[in-house]
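writing this on my phone so excuse typos. first protein, seq and then structure
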Amino acid sequence: MSRIRALFLGTPDIAKFCLEAMIRDPHFEVVGVVTQPDRPAGRKLEFQASPVKALAKPLGIPVLTPENVNAPEMLEGLGTLRAEVAVVVAYGQILKQAFLDLYPLKVVNVHASLLPKWRGAAPIQRALMNGDAETGVCLQVMVKKLDAGPVLGSRVIPLNNEMNAVELYQQCMVKGAELISVDLMDYLRGNLTAVPQDPELVTVAPKIDKAEAEMNWSWSAVRLHNLVRGLAMGPVAQTRRGGRILKVHKTRVVSAGGNGAEPGHMSVATDGRLLVSCGQGYLELVEVQPESKAKMAIAEYLRGYPVKAGELVGV
């Protein structure tokens, strides 16, 4: 059985997971990896390799880390690898037409949404922030327009009201690897035809701005809970108490109905739960992180930061 020569482009953990699956798959021969250059990370800001590079380099797979993958000299070098298909998973650079032309109709991308919904940089976060009932992962044939290529296959992931971005990310990794091993192989064998996206159904998932992390207590408890879930991977939802930042990692909707309390009013229930009044309903803070402190359960937080009568958060 002849193996398909594949070029892999990716950077974070989800890409590493998919690359691992391709390396194990006897149908593929990964002839090269393209990933983002080493970047400063951690408190000491030491240069650190991407998860994809850390996996591929010890295995002897050629690793390329260009600042610009579309540079002519880079494209010329990629041609020498004689890859038959290019698989892209959260690479981090826009691929221009000259790159796509190296592998006509055989540059495919794993995208963490059910396209055409949530095209763009933050599909996992936007699906949760929007309160969607389901999302998923798609495998698309890449075209010049962002996330607009025809779809080869998809996997649906049902969402519940408690799942956060970290948990959804883990599920997307598994589904993405499955799409590569099953749907991509069917496509390369000629057993699968790509289906164009319906432009009438397009929604956009722009990159998360840090300003979006600020909790607006005039919103409903449900909307704020979805914000916390969606930003669990970062930048993490936050509010202010006594002029200092309080990050909010986990919440629970106590009541979605109306209430007469001022938005941001805090109260401690008889069982020790910390409740905050919202524009509609009450939100329970379950896990928080005071400024310059570690993440902690609310019981520990209240021991160190007791709530005063009539105190407002977000002020």
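second protein below, same order as before
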Amino acid sequence: MRLRDALPQGLRRRLDFHRRAVLSFAEDTAASLPRGARVLDAGAGESPYRALFEAAGAKVFALDDRRGDGSWDYRGLDAVGDLRRIPVRDGAVDLVFCTETIEHLTDPQDVLREFARVLRPGGRLRMTAPLTFREHQEPHDYFRYTRHGVRLLLERAGLRVVSIDPEGGYFRMMADKVQAAHRVLFAKDRALVWKVLFLVLQPFSMLFFTVLLPLLCGALDPLDRRRKHTTGFLVTAERPA
């Protein structure tokens, strides 16, 4: 069992900086919706935010192509399909919500144009875009985005950029990244001599890299005001009225 699995649930959540940022983004989005809003959850995966939006009185249409994690439960989807050809009429949606998806799209510009098509005038897109996230869901992991690249794609799609906010700064980014250090140092395929010589260091490495250093980095993050180093961006755009 990993040390992190033995930690209290509240501390585990606190250490999952990226997940907390995305969840907060979803909660803020749901809180801003009027009752009866029509939401397209694009690239919904296991539809983790359906209950959140429905509790706010929204009508959710969850769409995904099911190319994500093979262990996921996709039964919560309303449709399986390609985001380049969304089965929704023009201007029918109040909000497109798209998290942790754009890096997996082979044609992100085409998909953003589809988002613009299905949004009503004044409707909004709320999206995450990674900058320094690890490779995942391979081989369907294609791109990383700067804030300038995100703006360019959105404007080419005919959307007006409202905000492109970094998830955090340098130290928040390091709080996420440093947690992999122990798994790299003590990988299962290390030579036996390495494992024997450094056996006594493993618990200290696990505690330091998995808990103590991430918490310290998270506490230091307000010191970085420029936010040029970040895990990714929380994006809001809208279809011009």
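The CA atoms of residues 13 and 20 lie 7 Å apart. thats all i got for now
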